[in-house]
Write a structure and sequence with these properties.
Blueprint (H helix, E strand, L loop, with lengths): L30 E8 L5 H11 L17 H6 L7 E8 L2 E9 L7 H8 L4 E7 L6 H12 L3 E7 L8 H12 L7 E2 L8 H11 L12 E10 L3 E10 L1 E3 L3 E4 L5 E3 L2 E5 L3 E4 L1 E3 L3 E5 L13 E4 L17 E7 L5 H13 L5 E7 L3 E8 L2 H15 L3 E3 L22 E7 L5 E6 L2 H5 L2 H8 L18 E8 L2 E2 L5 E4 L3 H15 L7 E7 L2 E8 L15 H16 L1 E4 L2 E4 H8 L5
Parallel strand pairs: 1-3, 1-4, 4-5, 5-6
Antiparallel strand pairs: 2-3, 7-8, 7-16, 8-15, 9-14, 10-11, 10-16, 12-13, 12-15, 17-19, 17-20, 18-19, 21-22, 23-24, 23-25, 23-26, 26-27, 28-29
The structure holds guanosine-5'-triphosphate.
The site of guanosine-5'-triphosphate (GTP) has 20 residues, from helix 1.
Length: about 575
């Protein structure tokens, strides 16, 4: 994979200008808070870069590609994981405007980040690729903005592409979202075509926030990160009043008081200011030591002027769980501190200590989705140099004990179907999460030659015909390989596991039966034939030291084995069966 250099936004500070703005004189009527939302790859980050360049927040150089995508994984994978914010100053018809842009991630796994950003905005730019048209996440993101009653400006991007068809995409937007086609703006973010118009329409169409500096100070925390030197840096949107350095503030969620140490704008690098005022968006450092003290959705107010808290957010709920273990137990402490540091910045990951006889001490981590898990793992490896074994992901089940389980349809149940245009159809299905979590998206993409797109949301628990499947070695159950599978899938899953084990366990002095069982019923079997590795076969003569050396080597090899019944199983065998896939 090609590695791109990480470009820190601070590096750009020398290129910025237009900073000498007295924020106290900035009327709320000339503030616009907006987000860019889109299906993945439709060009949000490219448009954000152009907007930053055109308003002078960053210089126009090739280096600026996707300035808001700060993390190395984001740059490598070309996806936005964490939302970033930038305040832009823009002159329009002789007036200066403050445009607060909040970048949002495009992938379904991070949709909770989209909703948190949206709650600090009055409008959104809904980007649609001029060739691909409306995709699954375009629809999901549209509804997030629509339900929050925001102004939605449709932007058709990539009109420079040879096979761009903006007429067709406008018709789709009119049909699916009921937005008149005349409201669409056609642009090429890459070439900068018509991007100025986007800035004008942000000013013209999106209303200013309905807030007043005369009200008591009230701010929404819409993001927070952890800085080793300063503690928590909270991104805040001011819904009323003003705040200055030295003020005593309280977080509504925990009721704890703090002193404001630092305040500022994000341009997108941090620019300290003395005060922030109603309608503005910026950052605050107030001696909080843990991101849990500045929870997303929390309300901040002045200690002497308590206010009613803002509605807040639903906490992000993990949907996919996987075990993470150090490659070697001696790396346990290092991996633990890496996981701790990474979760300081990502409060949506849940961590529980776990241990497995085969893999040793480790953790069971909960993620919002599969991509979220992969990104977390990649960050562990890149930013903390940790080598990790990740087990196959599982999804949460609720078990009803000792009663007959209800038989329900395992496959997707169709909910509705809408024709977007002559070639495209949008279908809604109810699926068991387990069916879509591993390779559904890859399969869907390859079956549709890359045309289909997919999005999902949690529809709650449903009864299903699930069973516990055991793996036996010469009749002894291997606890760490026990899994929950759907009854109809049990045979193929059992067979696959037996085959993998057969390939990973060396022959031993006796025959080994590898079996998959449901209760007392054997559903799959492989046999490993008897064989003795005679380590002395190569020593013809009687060189006793050489003999001893070889015997010692064999004994060391056995230490890496775990004995189940009379069968020695190498650690690698467990790793092969449990881990998700080869890198
Ligand atoms: N031809 C053309 N390509 C574009 C245009 N805008 C963006 N792209 C390309 O489309 C790809 C995706 O663009 P990004 O800006 O990374 O997309 P994104 O929506 O931010 O992606 P996520 O942050 O992962 O959701 C990149 O290769 C861009 O160079 C455009 O106007 N024309």
């Amino acid at each position: 994979m090609k590695r791109l250099p990480v470009l820190r936004c601070r590096d750009l500070s020398s290129h910025t200008h237009q900073d000498a703005v007295d924020l106290s004189k900035f009327p709320v009527e000339r503030i616009r808070n907006f987000s860019i939302i889109a299906h993945i790859d439709h060009g949000k980050s490219t448009l954000a870069d152009r907007l930053l360049e055109m308003t002078g927040a960053i210089a126009k150089t090739e280096k600026n590609k996707q300035v808001l995508d700060k993390l190395q994984v984001e740059r490598e994978r070309g996806i936005t994981v964490k939302a970033q914010t930038a305040s832009l100053f823009y002159s329009h018809q002789g007036q200066q405007y403050l445009l607060n842009l909040i970048d949002t991630p495009g992938h379904v796994d991070f949709s909770y980040e989209v909703s948190r950003s949206i709650s600090a905005c009055q409008g959104v730019l809904l980007i649609v690729d001029a060739n691909q048209g409306i995709q699954a996440q375009t629809v999901a993101n549209f509804y997030l903005a629509f339900e929050a009653q925001l102004t939605i400006i449709p932007v058709i991007n990539k009109i420079d592409l040879k096979n761009a068809d903006p007429d067709r995409v406008e018709a789709q937007i009119e049909k699916v979202f009921d937005i008149p086609r005349e409201e669409c703006i056609r642009i090429s973010a890459k070439l900068g075509t018509n991007v100025e118009r986007v800035l004008q329409e942000v000013v013209n169409r999106i209303p200013p926030p309905e807030v007043s500096t005369d009200d008591p100070f009230k701010a929404l925390v819409f993001d927070s990160t952890f800085d080793h030197y300063r503690g928590v840096v909270a991104n805040i949107a001011l819904f009323g009043g003003q705040v200055k350095k030295g003020d005593r503030i309280v977080s509504a969620h925990l009721g704890k008081a703090y002193e404001v140490n630092e305040l500022g704008l994000l341009r997108p690098d941090e620019r300290p200011t003395d005060r922030l005022y109603a309608g503005q968006v910026g950052y605050m450092v107030a001696g909080m030591k843990d991101v849990k003290e500045a929870q997303i959705g929390d309300t901040l107010y002045l200690q002497q002027q308590p206010v009613e808290a803002l509605p807040g957010f639903k906490p992000a709920k993990p949907m996919v769980f996987a075990g993470m273990y150090p490659m070697d137990q001696s790396e346990y402490t290092g991996l633990r501190s890496a996981i701790e540091r990474l979760t300081l910045n990502d409060s949506s990951v849940t961590v529980q200590r776990d241990s497995s006889l085969a893999l040793g001490a480790g953790w069971r981590l909960g993620f919002l989705g599969l991509l979220h898990m992969e990104v977390f793992n990649q960050r562990l490896e890149q930013e903390y140099n940790a080598s990790v074994i990740v087990t196959a992901p599982t999804v949460p089940y609720k078990a009803v004990l000792s009663s007959a389980k209800l038989i329900k349809n395992r496959r997707g149940v169709q909910k509705n179907m809408v024709y977007i245009d002559d070639h495209r159809v949008m279908m809604k299905y109810l699926f068991p999460l387990n069916e879509i979590v591993v390779d559904f998206y890859d399969l869907l993409k390859s079956m549709s030659s890359g045309y289909a797109s997919f999005d999902y949301e949690n529809a709650g628990y449903q009864a299903a015909d699930l069973i516990k499947m055991d793996i036996l070695l010469n009749g002894r159950s291997v606890e760490e390989l026990t899994t929950i599978v759907h009854r109809e899938r049990a045979y193929s899953a059992g067979k696959a596991m037996c085959e993998k084990l057969k390939d990973s366990i060396p022959r031993q002095m006796f025959e080994i039966a590898v079996q998959a069982a449901i209760g007392s019923k054997i559903i799959a079997r492989e046999t490993i034939k008897a064989y003795r590795k005679n380590v002395l076969a190569k020593c013809y003569g009687g060189d006793i030291t050489r003999k001893m050396k070889l015997l010692k080597k064999q004994a060391e090899g056995k230490k890496k084995m775990r004995r189940i019944g009379n069968v020695d199983v190498p650690k690698d065998a467990f790793i092969n069966v449990l881990k998700r896939k080869d890198k």
